Amino acid sequence: MDDIRKTALIIEKIFGVKGKGMVNEFKQEFDKTLQNEYAAELEQLLALNQEDFEALIKSDKYSAETLVTLSQMLYVFAEPFEQNEETQQLLTKVIAILDVLEEKYHIQSFDNITRRNAIYKYFDITL
């Protein structure tokens, strides 16, 4: 339960800042959360090739709850979905996390399905 509460607080804080249009504060809070909760930086995650990223998220380093939070954070960071390489990298990593959540942890939700469909639609448009 502590992980779930912590996840909810992280998401609420980051989404709240972005929702208020505070772009710099959102980026700072996002970076701080990545560092504190995942010992990572956005640039590090983006620099990982797909195989290395998948190995990382399949490892026992992260729980299912932390992966759910990470997928939500990356998805929100990518919004609005612009036509650029960073957005494509972010969304590819979100799909990888959703795959691990489904395959390893047997977690699927309407939110994840909605996100997955939006990402597929984005890639249909960009390809």
List the helices and strands and how they pair.
Layout: H1 2-19, H2 23-38, H3 42-47, H4 50-58, H5 64-78, H6 85-103, H7 110-126
Report the major sheet: none
The residue ranges in which pLDDT falls below 50 over 5 or more consecutive positions are none
Q: What is the radius of gyration?
A: 14 Å
Strand content: under 5%
How many alpha or pi helices? 7
Secondary-structure class: mainly alpha
Percent of residues in helices: over 70%
Global outline: globular
Q: Care to count the β-strands? A: 0
The SSE order reads: HHHHHHH
How many angstroms does the end-to-end distance come to? Answer: 41 Å
The count of domains is 1
Whole-number mean pLDDT:
88
Give keywords.
127 residues, mainly alpha
Describe this structure in words.
This protein is an all-alpha fold and 127 residues long. It has one domain. The model has no long low-confidence stretch (mean pLDDT 88).
Question: In short, what is this structure?
Answer:
This protein has 127 residues and is mostly helical. The protein has helices at 2-19, 23-38, 42-47, 50-58, 64-78, 85-103, 110-126. The chain is globular and about 35 Å long.
